[in-house]
Amino acid sequence: MRLDRPAARLVERHYKQRRCRGMVSRRPAGTAALLALLLSAGPSFATETVWDVLEGFGLTGVWSVACAAPTTAANFRYIYSRAANGGATRELDFGVSELTSSVIESAELLSPSTLKIRVRSTDPRFQHLNNLILETVLTKQIHAGTGEMRVRFIEAGDSSGKVYIKGGMVVGGAQVRVGKPTFWQHKCRPTMT
Q1: Alpha-carbon span 13 to 159, nearest angstrom
Q2: 93: which of 15, 36, 72, 179 is 20 to 30 A away, CA to CA?
Q3: What does the longest C-alpha to C-alpha distance in the chain come to?
């Protein structure tokens, strides 16, 4: 296992100090304990939660194709919120108190402008979808003049093997938009806490 630079420097400094004091050969257990501590604790300091990744990308709050229009089944909202455990949830708001809930199990930044998320449905009303994983890839653009960010889905498929979006085009599902590009979504407002 390779150490990162800061950890390697600590170990090197530790050896030099002990060598200067003539303690290296007398205390190999202490040196081994320090090395074990650095190897076991080092990566845990850099662990990011799913929410941290979403927040770093900018995908938090309420998103829609048309924020000014009423929330309906045709103009629904994606709501990305922080979960109590540091993870994240995604709700779909179809208006008139119709929310569906899901858990974002993982989020991975593929590039500064591309994010992959894995979402698992947890809504009791949609038991046939529960434990089905939807993996989506989003891309973002930031307007040079206003700084406003927008996102769109460029890939989407589920754990059963169905593909819904490929290369930014809708290719499957029960959508009338099959064969057309996905819409850009805009941030309507931040997440309410």
Answers
A1: 49
A2: 179
A3: 77
Q: Given the structure tokens 């309507």, which residue do they identify?
A: 188
For the record, the structure tokens of 182 come out as 């996905």
pLDDT for 107 = 96
Handedness of CA 140, 142, 143, 147 (dihedral sign): positive
- 9 three-class SS: helix
- The C-alpha atoms of residue 148 and residue 28 are separated, in whole angstroms, by 57
Residue 115 banded pLDDT, cuts 50, 70, 90: very high
Q: Give φ, ψ of 166 to 5 degrees.
A: -140, 125
What is the average per-residue pLDDT within 149-159? 95
d(CA 40, CA 163): 40
What are the strands, taking DSSP E only, across the chain?
61-64, 77-82, 88-93, 99-111, 114-121, 133-142, 149-158, 163-166, 169-170, 185-189
Per-residue pLDDT tens over the stretch 161-176: 999 999 999 998 766 7
